[in-house]
């Protein structure tokens, strides 16, 4: 027992140590789970075989780790056609229902490692009401559904889901007693079934803006090093969603080539930037491609590749407002700085 308690503490601590993508952000979500439905107790298995399930749901996260979820249940079970001659023996069994309850989530969106980026583990327990529509189920009764799964976020809002659930309704399949069946399959007995499969989820919450970098701490200036010529180019700009060099950037880059050839030992950092449109991962890759395009141009003009290092800063360092087209155009840029 003590080992289980320690393991639970370590798991919870590891999740709380991760920077959530929607940290503290409340918001709604909706989705649809599709999968198989498998009867899990003997009496129900004597009446139906494996079928399918569709489970639409909506909910609202009050916090990153807690919310409420309303879920629909639509089940279609194949008949156990063993030719016993009672009514509806060959008819598919269908069940509908609705449940409501809490949703506990552990979002693990993190910058690294990349294979864990965009994962949310969740669990839910719900109570509600179910009604048999056809086949072996013709009555209504309360019940519950518990389970969980993993959301794999493809974007900041869209996720693919893998799920599994255990369900029980306090009703019996009809007829409750089957001649010739084993004692474990005789009824009446509450129906129980498991569902599992995949789904699609849309999360209406938005990721918070990255905080600006803290201002540098003032320090006493160190002894003056040998004077280096500082090169900062803010006029190499790019079209929206592009990384190719524009014609108006050629004169600026040629001037940089001339300066770098005059300063033969200077090493520079080529910094790529983007505007604020798009997701953080996409803009990170775009800023890296822009920096790489400038580096390729400088190398082509005779600058040693060993003097050039590229970095991508994505949309984290704007020089103008991203609320206007002119501001966004200024932010789509590459800067060259002396290391």
CATH architecture of the largest domain: Beta Barrel
Rg, please?
30 Å
The neighbouring-strand order within the major sheet is 1-2-3-4-5-6-7-8
User: Helical residue percent?
Assistant: 10-25%
- Per CATH, what is the topology of the largest domain? Porin
Give the averaged pLDDT, no decimals. 83
Number of domains in the coordinates? 2
Largest sheet: 8 strands, antiparallel, barrel
- Category from helices, strands and their pairing: alpha+beta
Alpha plus pi helix count: 5
Number of strands: 12
Instruction: Please report the first level of CATH classification, the CATH class of the largest domain.
Output: Mainly Beta
**Principal-axes shape call:** elongated
Calculate the terminal CA-CA distance, rounded to whole Å.
56 Å
> What fraction of residues sit in β-strands?
35-45%
Question: Could you spell the SSE succession in H and E letters?
Answer: HEHEEEEEEEEHEHEHE
**pLDDT < 50 stretches:** 7-21, 110-115
